[in-house]
C-alpha cells in the first residue's frame, strides 16, 4: 500500500507538473519537497518512515498512535480529546475570526505580528519536544516528528489546518497577540514572491535568488535548531528564491486543482502542486520538508494552502463538509472520525471538527476573500 501510495503520488506530480523539474543545491542541504516530479528531490516514503522510526522518541511518539482508534478511546488515554470545543456554529457565524490577506493587513497589524513571532522565538520551549530551543521551535519539532504521517497522504490538509490554528492560539495565549490573523495571496505574486513587501527589510527580510542566510528584516541572523531534515544541527534561516517555482502558485494552477470533484484528487493536486512549489520557490529552510515551520513564511504559505481547501469546500458545502476520502499513511481510509494529533500543544481533534472552519467546534475563522 505504501508503495502504491508513492507511485500514485509520483504519477500525480508528473501529471500536474509537466514542467521542467528543478534541481538545485540548497544550503544547508535539506531534503526538498517531492513536488517537482524529479526522483532526485524525492525522499522515498519508505525511507522517510524508516528515518522517522529511527528517531529518538520525544514526548508522544506518533508512530505509536493507532490511527484507527476511536475518539472515545483516545479521550480516555490522553485526557485531551473534545475539550477544544468552544462555541456553537451560530455563535461562530456571528463573530468569526477573519484572516486578512497581507496587502489588506495594516502596518500596525504587520508590526504586531512580527513582534509576536519574535516573542515566541524568545520564549523557552515547553520541554516536550527534544531539540527545540524555543516555543517557536516547538512547532518545527512537532512538524518534523509528524512529517511522514501528514504529508503525501490525505491527512495533509486537515492536519495542517489544525496545526496553523494551534500556532495561532499559542501566539495569542503566550505572546498576547490580539490582532486578526493573516494570509498571503500567492496567486498575486506568482513568479515574483520577492517583490512583495512581505519579503522586505521591514518584515520577513529579503528573498534573494541565490542561497543565502537571512540578514535583514525581523528575523535577521535567526538560528534554526531543528533540521536540516530529520537532523538537529544548528543552521541559519536560509532562502534561495526561485521564480520559476513560485510561478506555479498561480490562479490557473489553483483553478486546475479546484476543478477536481474528489477530495483526494484535489488534495494531491494542491499538495504536490502549489504547496510544494511555494516551499521550494522560497528555498532554504522553507524547502526542508521536515523543519520548514522554523521559517516565518511557512505560516503565510500554509494559510494560503488552507484557504484553497476552504474555497474547494465552499463550492459544494453540503457534500464537502459531510465526508472525506483518501487515506492516512497506513492506507486506512480517512473518515470524519479520523483523529488529528497535535502532540499535546492543543487538544487532539477529529477531521469532523476541522472540516468546516466556521463550525465553531474546534475552529472559528474565515478568510477575508
Ligand atoms: Cu507540512
Record keyword descriptors for this entry:
369 residues; mainly alpha; di-copper center containing domain from catechol oxidase; three-stranded parallel β-sheet; two-stranded antiparallel ribbon; 13 helices; 41% helix; globular; disordered N terminus; binds copper (II) ion
Average residue-wise pLDDT: 82
Ligands bound to this protein structure? copper (II) ion
Shape: globular
Termini Cα gap: 39 Å
The CATH homologous superfamily: Di-copper center containing domain from catechol oxidase
Provide the spatial order of strands within the biggest beta sheet.
Answer: 2-1-9
Q: Specify the biggest β-sheet.
A: 3 strands, parallel
Low-confidence blocks of residues:
1-86
Please state the second-level CATH architecture. Orthogonal Bundle
In terms of DSSP E residues, the strand content is 5-15%
- N-to-C SSE series? HHHHEHHHEEEEEHHHHHEEHE
What oligomerization state is this entry in? single chain
> DSSP helix count?
13
The CATH topology corresponds to: di-copper center containing domain from catechol oxidase
Total count of domains: 1
Helix/strand/pairing class, anyone?
mainly alpha
Amino acid at each position: 500500500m505504501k508503495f502504491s501510495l508513492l507511485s500514485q503520488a509520483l504519477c500525480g506530480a508528473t501529471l500536474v507538473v509537466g514542467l521542467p523539474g528543478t534541481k538545485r543545491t540548497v544550503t544547508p542541504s535539506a531534503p526538498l519537497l517531492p513536488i517537482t516530479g524529479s526522483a532526485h528531490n524525492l525522499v522515498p516514503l519508505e525511507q522517510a518512515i524508516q528515518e522517522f522510526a529511527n528517531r529518538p522518541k520525544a514526548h508522544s511518539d506518533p508512530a505509536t498512535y493507532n490511527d484507527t482508534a476511536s475518539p472515545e478511546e483516545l479521550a480516555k488515554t490522553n485526557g485531551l480529546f473534545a475539550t477544544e470545543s468552544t462555541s456553537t456554529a451560530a455563535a461562530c457565524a456571528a463573530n468569526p475570526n477573519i484572516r486578512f490577506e497581507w496587502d489588506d493587513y495594516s502596518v500596525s497589524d504587520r508590526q504586531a505580528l512580527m513582534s509576536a513571532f519574535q516573542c515566541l522565538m524568545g520564549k523557552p520551549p515547553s520541554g516536550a519536544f527534544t531539540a527545540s530551543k524555543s516555543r517557536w521551535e516547538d512547532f518545527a519539532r512537532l512538524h518534523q516528528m509528524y512529517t511522514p504521517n501528514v504529508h503525501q497522504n490525505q491527512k495533509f490538509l486537515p492536519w495542517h489546518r489544525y496545526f496553523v490554528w494551534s500556532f495561532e492560539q499559542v501566539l495569542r495565549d503566550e505572546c498576547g497577540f490580539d490582532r486578526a490573523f493573516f494570509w498571503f495571496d500567492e496567486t498575486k505574486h506568482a513568479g515574483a514572491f520577492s517583490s512583495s513587501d512581505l519579503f522586505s527589510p521591514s518584515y520577513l527580510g529579503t528573498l534573494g535568488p541565490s542561497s543565502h542566510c537571512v540578514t535583514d528584516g525581523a528575523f535577521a541572523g535567526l538560528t534554526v535548531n531543528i533540521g536540516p531534515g530529520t537532523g538537529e544541527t544548528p543552521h541559519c534561516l536560509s532562502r534561495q528564491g526561485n521564480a520559476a517555482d513560485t510561478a506555479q502558485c498561480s490562479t490557473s494552477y489553483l483553478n486546475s486543482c479546484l476543478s477536481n470533484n474528489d477530495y483526494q484528487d484535489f488534495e494531491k493536486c494542491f499538495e504536490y502542486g502549489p504547496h510544494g512549489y511555494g516551499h521550494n520557490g522560497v528555498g532554504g529552510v522553507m524547502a526542508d520538508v521536515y523543519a520548514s515551520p522554523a521559517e516565518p513564511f511557512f505560516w503565510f504559505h500554509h494559510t494560503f494552502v488552507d484557504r484553497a481547501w476552504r474555497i474547494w469546500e465552499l463550492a459544494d458545502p453540503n457534500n464537502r463538509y459531510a465526508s472525506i476520502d483518501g487515506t492516512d499513511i497506513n492506507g486506512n481510509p480517512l473518515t470524519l472520525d479520523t483523529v488529528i494529533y497535535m502532540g499535546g500543544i492543543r487538544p487532539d481533534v477529529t477531521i469532523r471538527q476541522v472540516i468546516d472552519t466556521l463550525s465553531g467546534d474546534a475552529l472559528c475563522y474565515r478568510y477575508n476573500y
